[in-house]
């Protein structure tokens, strides 16, 4: 019995073991099958990625386990792919439907690549997904509604794509969602009310879109901590309900069009840390209960129209770190309580109407203060002791009414970088050398900027800069300070100096030759002093000098001939009102890029050289009040940009050159008080911009022209000449046209006339013969379509674009849409259809359109035609088959350094022509990669130039603000609506940075104080290797097999390009270079790069074979 029982138990055990073995084999087989499915899905993705510049996916093959593939993580339980992370890998391609077979996927992260196209619906099968991030790719179109089918989704980001339309309501079915990030797209309309359903949300980012309304239902999100809706089109008052969200820590709504008063219940958000409502249209006063938000760290209410006083209760914010009320209409004293907030790091109260004085020991309660900005107010009293605020790096108290001595306690601020105190009533204590504050400031180890202009210092300059050999100073502004004494030789030791402005003082002595050691100096202003002696030739050693102002002194001698060697840098030269003598050196006319020349009121002699025509881009020439002789060179007529010309009060003789009709930009012409003779050329009637002309006190004769600008000139323009005649209003006798002439005089007229007729007939005959030949040649070339201006009907455009079919859509912008089309004569074109809802636009569309069509340059998009009807307006442009630079940067990314450099040179050349090559400077206003298009030969063409002229009435801030794009616009454009060619230079600099870094200026990494400009600047001051972390890795080829000297060559080229870009993006418009200089510098960089490449190829070819 026992034996039978034992056998039975043994049998049962054996069967169980067999079952377990078969079970494990089956499980392994199932797992093998499932992981094969994942493998197939991922290989399908790899096949849709044509560009993998870093060979990231090289180990994605059947010979390697899927779970060991780069970017792939498998779950320990099911051995299935649970995480796919390909972020920041530089991949380009599309997403295939089989990716939806990764049924165990929990995280999908594809951010910061160049994926494009549409997202397949099959992704909706991934029901386990908790994390989706498609940020910074090039997906476009509407956001797919199936994104609402992920029941476990917690984090969802589509930031930095080109999705448009509204947010699909299905998104708000994601009941577990905690982060929603749809920022930096092209979404519009109202934020849907259904957003209130996402009760688990903790953060919402909808910034940099075109949303116009926040719904009240957002207040249902009781767990929401962060809400970002800046850079949108929100208008009207802020929904009060927002501030009922008790968990809110960050609210950012700046740069919208919100209006009305600030809600009182803002300060009920007791957990609020950051409140950013700047750059809106808020009015009224700051609520007095502001002190209730005791957790608050940052408050930005800058650039609104707030009035009233700053509430005392603001001192009740014990954690406040940043306070910005800049650019409002606040008045009254600054509450003393504000100076007891020990945590504050930045206080910005500039550009208001604040009054009163500052507390005597302001620094005691502000130990962490780093930036203090209270400029442009009505403050008075003395500047207090700031020495206890030892962290201070930047101070701006300019444009107030401070009095008393410049405090020596400033010298205790060892972290100080910038000190701005201009336009006050400060003086300097000169009782002892030790008391001279300027002297000790010059030796602060971190100070780079001193700006104290327009203060009555009444001190000697040579006592102020004695021992400053190690000073990092870059900018010194001490003009109009009643400074006396000599310019100290020690200033020549400030090797980092970029701008030295000592104008409008009482300085005497000579200009020290030591200034020639300031190798970085770009601007030297010593005008309106009492300086004597010669202009030292050592100034010619300043390779970067662009502005040289030495006017209104007592300088003597001749103009240094070596100044002509500063062709590449010198832009403004002012030597007027001195005692300079001798002739103008012949080398002077080599300054081909100079813009302003003023040599007036000296004792210069000799004739004017014909080489004056070499100053191709000059805007102003003033040589008046000298002793110049000879005739006026006719070559002046080629200076098409010249706006002001004065040769008055010299000894010039001969006729006024008829070639002056080429001065198409001339606005002011003064040739008075010379010995000019002959007639006034009738060709001057063509100078349509001429507003002022003075030809008085010469020996001119004949009829005064009557057309063009001459209709507006008075008798004062022609007084005291020899024998002028004309209209009675000009106080000259009438011209006698009917007086009989002697036969000999008639013969002198008739004979040349007959000769002229014969020559004319001969020319006509030659012209007809040549035209006949040209017609025959043209018949052989009929296959080449001629892009001549012609009208195009709405019907022709409808047919050519298949009824403006979506399949023909090339892109959408702020002003309308662009479609590809084919005209009836077979020419492929791009049709830009304007949005007629733009308020006040198109007042002179037809005239401006035809004018723009006449602007021809190889790097500007050719405007072929326009179509203008009451309810339809469009431009017909030459089609660019290779699309935009933006597409090449973020979709294909196959451009090497030389490609990108060539594109930048092309774009810069286009801007140079718009700014300097046309009779009236044209400001582009919206320079960005999407407006740089590439033809079949990859030559760049700039688009959308002159849009402001087409819209009409572009003088209003509202309209000009619609032209620029966030991230590319110059600071003065964004803050004040100031439009100028300098703004284009800034935008171009940003485009250069983006082109070589492949980072948009709106990248999410650029927030707070960090922007693309600062990011680049930081990389340049660090060791060379740091530039590798900034530029597009594809350009340097790091990791690829290459010689060290090849990497150095590429790095040097990019460093030079980035330095140029930063120069373009100078904060102040007047500190930016012109596009002429940009083009010249880029060509230099390219030439050096190619020469070094050729030299390296030569070295490689000459190596011995091993």
TrEMBL record:
<dbReference type="InterPro" id="IPR001611">
    <property type="entry name" value="Leu-rich_rpt"/>
</dbReference>
<dbReference type="GO" id="GO:0005524">
    <property type="term" value="F:ATP binding"/>
</dbReference>
<dbReference type="InterPro" id="IPR013210">
    <property type="entry name" value="LRR_N_plant-typ"/>
</dbReference>
<dbReference type="InterPro" id="IPR017441">
    <property type="entry name" value="Protein_kinase_ATP_BS"/>
</dbReference>
<keyword id="KW-0433">Leucine-rich repeat</keyword>
<dbReference type="Pfam" id="PF07714">
    <property type="entry name" value="PK_Tyr_Ser-Thr"/>
</dbReference>
<dbReference type="InterPro" id="IPR032675">
    <property type="entry name" value="LRR_dom_sf"/>
</dbReference>
<keyword id="KW-0808">Transferase</keyword>
<keyword id="KW-0067">ATP-binding</keyword>
<feature type="signal peptide">
    <location>
        <begin position="1"/>
        <end position="30"/>
    </location>
</feature>
<dbReference type="InterPro" id="IPR011009">
    <property type="entry name" value="Kinase-like_dom_sf"/>
</dbReference>
<dbReference type="Pfam" id="PF08263">
    <property type="entry name" value="LRRNT_2"/>
</dbReference>
<keyword id="KW-0418">Kinase</keyword>
<keyword id="KW-0597">Phosphoprotein</keyword>
<feature type="domain" description="Protein kinase">
    <location>
        <begin position="804"/>
        <end position="1090"/>
    </location>
</feature>
<keyword id="KW-0547">Nucleotide-binding</keyword>
<keyword id="KW-0723">Serine/threonine-protein kinase</keyword>
<keyword id="KW-0675">Receptor</keyword>
<dbReference type="GO" id="GO:0005886">
    <property type="term" value="C:plasma membrane"/>
</dbReference>
<dbReference type="InterPro" id="IPR000719">
    <property type="entry name" value="Prot_kinase_dom"/>
</dbReference>
<keyword id="KW-0472">Membrane</keyword>
<keyword id="KW-1133">Transmembrane helix</keyword>
<protein>
    <recommendedName>
        <fullName>non-specific serine/threonine protein kinase</fullName>
        <ecNumber>2.7.11.1</ecNumber>
    </recommendedName>
</protein>
<feature type="binding site">
    <location>
        <position position="832"/>
    </location>
    <ligand>
        <name>ATP</name>
    </ligand>
</feature>
<keyword id="KW-1003">Cell membrane</keyword>
<dbReference type="Pfam" id="PF00560">
    <property type="entry name" value="LRR_1"/>
</dbReference>
<keyword id="KW-0812">Transmembrane</keyword>
<dbReference type="InterPro" id="IPR001245">
    <property type="entry name" value="Ser-Thr/Tyr_kinase_cat_dom"/>
</dbReference>
<keyword id="KW-0732">Signal</keyword>
<dbReference type="InterPro" id="IPR051809">
    <property type="entry name" value="Plant_receptor-like_S/T_kinase"/>
</dbReference>
<dbReference type="InterPro" id="IPR003591">
    <property type="entry name" value="Leu-rich_rpt_typical-subtyp"/>
</dbReference>
<keyword id="KW-0325">Glycoprotein</keyword>
<keyword id="KW-0677">Repeat</keyword>
<comment type="similarity">
    <text>Belongs to the protein kinase superfamily. Ser/Thr protein kinase family.</text>
</comment>
<dbReference type="Pfam" id="PF13855">
    <property type="entry name" value="LRR_8"/>
</dbReference>
<dbReference type="InterPro" id="IPR008271">
    <property type="entry name" value="Ser/Thr_kinase_AS"/>
</dbReference>
<feature type="transmembrane region" description="Helical">
    <location>
        <begin position="749"/>
        <end position="769"/>
    </location>
</feature>
<dbReference type="GO" id="GO:0004674">
    <property type="term" value="F:protein serine/threonine kinase activity"/>
</dbReference>
